[in-house]
Amino acid sequence: MLTSNSAIAPARTHRAGAALKARMRLLDIENLTVSFTQHEGLVQAVRGVSLSLEAGESLGIVGESGSGKSVTCMAALRLLREPPARITADKLDLCGTDMTRASRKDLSAIRGSAAAMVFQDPMSAFDPVFSIGHQITETIRTHRAVSAAAARAEAEALLTRVEIRNPASVLASYPHQLSGGMLQRSMIAMALSCRPRLLFADEPTTALDVTVQAQILQLIKDLQAEIGMGLIMVTHDLGVVAETVDRVVVMYGGRVMEQAPVQALFDTPAHPYTKALLHSIPGQHPGKRRLSEIAGASPDPAQMPGGCPFHPRCPRAIARCSTDTPPLILTDTSALACWNPA
Amino acid sequence: MIPALELRALTKTYQLKTGQGLFAGMRDHTVVQDVNLSLMPNEIMGLVGESGSGKTTTGMMALRLTEPSSGQILVGGTDITTLAPTALKPYRRRMQVVFQDSYSALDPMMTLEQIIAEPLHIHGIGTQATRRTQALDWLVRAGLHRSQSGRYPHELSGGQRQRVAIARALILEPSVLVADEPTSALDVSIKAQIINLLMDLQRDMGLSILFISHDLSVVRALTDRVAVMQQGRIVELAPTESLFAGALHPYSRALLDAIPVLNPSQRRRRIFPDPAALIRDIPRLAAASSGATPGPTPQLVTASPGHLVEAVVT
């Protein structure tokens, strides 16, 4: 009896752990495709992407323009206009809700409160004709039943939290009166106003100066640790990824090429694309020098090459790469889609 | 050696309106103040700083695309500061420019061949046939294909458009190229291609480049010397590696410290100096070591051979 019990116990714990984990999963995407109907025909921006995020975890999605990184996030929040966009997925769960079936009402409840997004260009993300205070309090009152005064007090506290020194005057300001860094801080405050469990940050620092970028990244990291929210950092900049996230997904041509814990990705990149990308970053070594470049250009989403999308530019391409699409093979902590890794 | 481009005490002041309506006053706003730079033949100099530091205004004044309020611009030893448009034209041929946004820099109604040949046309060089041949040569030299000569800018990617802009700038074989953030809008893998192209062409043509950028990583890979601008003034000027190895001005250090580190194991909490601290920490140099006259206001002094820093001389 005792022996059988002890044999069952760990299995039970394991199953309970798995169930708990499944409940805690903030984002679970399996085989997501996003296509757009355009006059040139059907453009496939995302082609079979799978990724997931546990509570409190941070994930970087790295890719160049046209890799599908932003579209993946927009699709997860169902922010794309459908049509022209068409989304299919075996699974598209955001904070426990099946986003493929979510009604308009469900969607507006989830966006902002369960998951929020910070965009690259805060100037166009804010409405120019309303004050910052108006826009933040509006967000708070849309999602929660609080008085105008309470919402305003909370907005002020949020601005203080994103290290704005004069919150009252920023609340009274209009977007054009603030610098890019201040606007991005305000945007982060607005995103945090409904205490989201998951924050999408799409190139949040690309439009900012280097010193401001460093400050905003530090702020996002601090807030993530403090609140314990999940973070998805979408960026083209491997430096940003190296500074901020636990795990990285590398995208190219609408597909996931590689996924790995951040340290492993920088120490032992497995995909030829990841390697080439890391080598092409300027300024890693002292002295004026030619850079190692990736020949050619990113594929046109309207005319994707067959097989692996990177094969026309890949130094390790073999015959199979142009005909068969390599599947994403999962190992312990990583995943790789390549027929001929180094 | 005569510098390819020399800026002497270059200053730009704009008049800003204070208050509103009929009784608004005016006040001076200096965006570039007393900038001295010598770009030597065959040299690539980086001009770095944050937005609003005056780096682009300095570049545009060097080309006389923006008129300076005071100071002088010398091209190959000749003062061009006050030359009238006709007298200036031969010097324009010797100074060309590449901008950040290649899309708005290229005429959408012209083919690539027409775009690249246009400077020859403007300066009345060659015949239609020779201009065409030269334009096609430059198209190839900039890394594009001859067959693309009839294309229009919108048919190209950002990197390809920047190649066209570079070909158009260099077809006149200028001695000076001002490149204003030419790689900032490009993807990582394309950025490296354009930097390499600039580096190769610079070496082949013996060109001098004033490379304006906020991206210190690119500046490190490409330039021989760097000038750091803060609020319209040059606060440090040094050989590139000497700046990266030992920046002396607190503002330069703040810029270098903000560069993301490409190694997750070296993550650290950064401490951001407040602007007041940057002013408080201005280096102090003894008059004896720098050879400058002591005074309470910061001045650009030589800290070590070739390495200038704004400091208070005591």
Q: What is the N-to-C succession of helices and strands of chain A?
A: HEEEHEEEHEHHHHHEHEHEEHHEE
Mean pLDDT of chain B: 90
Strand order of the largest sheet of chain A: 7-8-9-3-10-11-13-12
* Helical fraction of chain A: 25-40%
Polypeptide structure, described:
The complex is a heterodimer of chains A (342) and B (314). Chain A has 342 residues and is an alpha/beta fold. Helices cover 38% and strands 21% of the residues of chain A. Chain A has twelve helices and 13 strands. In chain A, strand 10 and strand 11 (255-261) form a beta hairpin. In chain A, helix 5 (132-143) packs across helix 6 (148-161). Chain A is globular, with a radius of gyration of 22 Å. Chain B has 314 residues and is α/β, with parallel strands linked by helices. Helix content of chain B is 35%, strand content 27%. Chain B has helices at 55-62, 85-94, 102-105, 112-122, 128-141, 158-170, 188-205, 216-222, 240-245, 250-257, 275-280, 287-290, and strands at 5-18, 25-39, 44-48, 70-75, 78-79, 95-98, 176-180, 208-213, 225-230, 233-239, 284-285, 299-304, 307-313. In chain B, strand 12 and strand 13 form a beta hairpin. The longest helix of chain B is centred in the middle third of the chain and has 18 residues, at 188-205. The model of chain B has no long low-confidence stretch (mean pLDDT 90). The interface between A and B is large, with 42 and 48 residues.
